[in-house]
Amino acid sequence: MKPSLWTWNTRTVVTVGIGGVLYAATSWIGIPIVADTQLRPAIALLAIFGALFGPVVGFIAGFIGHVINDLITSGTVWWGWALGSGITAAFMGLVYIFKDFNAREGRMNKSHLVLFAVCGIVGIFVSLAFSGLFDIFVMGEPNDKIVVEVVTAGLANVAVFLILGLPAVWAYAKRNRSNTNLSVDR
């Protein structure tokens, strides 16, 4: 049985911490696409933490990880983009709330996979729209620069999510499904 979204214990706090640190550490790895935009495999971690632990844990881990990465790499936090990372993970974690979904117990079928893909893609573009609008209206960034960043980051994030994140969660669930019929002989 999977824990409730609102059950907070030591394990939940540790999971958020590990997720945040892993996302921050892997956010350094990227292939530059356009100015201030990279293809980052770390997006796959948002999918994994969101799907396995839910939208709340995913949001907090994504947000904290982005803040840590910003502080280490540039010394300043881009709050709109940090919130965007959290929003992305929260959308990817929406699959967690479905009663018959539980990747840790191997319960993930093709309809869950489709739902996960749709929620992830929608979440990527919702979070990037939020981040872009935040930069335009709060930070005073030029519209044309932000549009290019949002579109290229969106396409790159969708590619990483579909190529790395979604298959990782599917494989994890499949591995756990094959182990559920084991018994211990004494």
TrEMBL record:
InterPro entries: ECF_substrate-spec-like (IPR009825). GO terms for cellular component: membrane. The chain crosses the membrane at residues 12-35, 42-65, 77-98, 113-134, 146-173. Signal peptide: none annotated. Keywords: Membrane, Transmembrane, Transmembrane helix. The keyword Transmembrane applies. PANTHER family: UPF0397 PROTEIN BC_2624-RELATED, UPF0397 PROTEIN SPR0429. This is ECF-type riboflavin transporter substrate-binding protein.
